[in-house]
Design brief:
Elements lengths: L6 E5 H5 L4 E7 L2 E10 L2 E6 L24 E2 L6 E2 L21 E4 L2 E4 L4 E3 L2
Antiparallel strand pairs: 1-8, 2-3, 2-9, 3-4, 5-6, 7-8
Bound molecules: FE2/S2 (inorganic) cluster.
The site of FE2/S2 (inorganic) cluster (FES) has 8 residues, from loops.
Length: about 120
């Protein structure tokens, strides 16, 4: 296993105790943030960047889910996304996707498993 490509996010238990986390990252040479959350008990992560007008999903509210808890939601204009695929469900950007970030859990610790990702301080 190539542990050197793994970057620790947090113990998975931390995600069970919160709605979501963000981490500042460099991904493919660009500084951005990542959202990390559990959905139906499984961990997911995406670059925190709505393709509509290039805002973080939590730019207007400290939330990334809609009121049903079934869809990610950008707080700027309310576009929603499938949390398991990142695919936008709103008409203007229908079918476009949030950039997914691979995660890996090893012994209760969650890691980013992306070659072109580095954590920022
Ligand atoms: S910027 Fe996200 S819905 Fe408009």
């Amino acid at each position: 296993m190539q542990h050197n490509r793994l970057k620790a996010v947090c113990p998975i238990q931390v995600l069970r105790d919160t709605r979501y986390l963000t981490r500042q990252i460099m991904f493919k040479g660009k500084a951005c943030s990542a959202i990390i959350f559990l959905f139906d008990g499984l961990p997911y992560s995406y670059v925190n960047h709505c393709m509509h007008m290039h805002r973080p999903l939590n730019c207007e509210q400290d939330a990334i889910f809609d009121e049903t808890g079934q869809f990610l939601r950008c707080s700027m204009h309310g576009f929603i996304f499938d949390p398991t695929t990142g695919v936008c469900q709103s008409p203007v950007c229908y079918g476009e996707r949030l950039q997914a970030l691979r995660l890996q859990e090893i012994e209760g610790i969650l890691y980013f498993a992306e070659k072109h990702l580095n954590l920022m301080a």
